[in-house]
């Protein structure tokens, strides 16, 4: 059985770097027609586009977007559609944006209301409404499509931090709504990566990912960090012709992460 990418015109939220950038490259390599990179920082988006490899028959666009601005989401989808043209309907969405929060040493327990809102508005509220609004957009036009959300292995840890709370909520939303959206031809899944060295996780720089040199990562069976391209490959699977049978799945991708509950 050949595994092929289903959606051809895909928005990637958080596509300017890290996991999102790796996903963009993998989907282009897998036959995507158009990729729309979106994040708050237009300069980073343009830099990411220059680094991507794609053919003359493929297109990459950059669109500034703040996931916390719920009222702007409909206009964002309209702007994205105008970029690629009405003849190429957008049928894929990857949400890879997020904000981290250090909840150690009682920081999570004594979090300020401002910090709580910052994390939840980005990681949960913004994600839910973007997923919901995109799914409704597809359904209203009779378009089948795929949505893949990047959650975290933190969804399986003790909820000591607002970050962990937000990721658990996202994973459970995907698990629940994935089963119902599939009846509309909209496939919703997510991945829960273990620690990945990105700009958001600079403190991980000293640990190896199996390719980059460093000391062993102590919290997984493979004793290394996860690489962005490994998560990108799993996103491809969750947006391929295999994705229907995985509807509502949250794939744990931590290399045998140890400090999680069953």
Overview of the molecule:
With 262 residues, the protein is of the alpha/beta class. The protein has a single domain (9-253), classed as Rossmann fold (3-Layer(aba) Sandwich). Helices cover 35% and strands 15% of the residues. The chain contains six helices and seven strands. It has a seven-stranded parallel β-sheet, sandwiched between helices. The protein is globular, with a radius of gyration of 18 Å. The model has no long low-confidence stretch (mean pLDDT 94).
Structural key phrases:
single chain, 262 residues, alpha/beta, Rossmann fold
In short, what is this structure?
With 262 residues, this protein is of the alpha/beta class. The protein has helices at 18-29, 42-51, 73-84, 113-140, 162-181, 228-238; strands spanning 9-13, 34-39, 59-64, 92-95, 145-150, 186-193, 250-253. Helix 5 (162-181) links the parallel strand 5 and strand 6 (186-193).
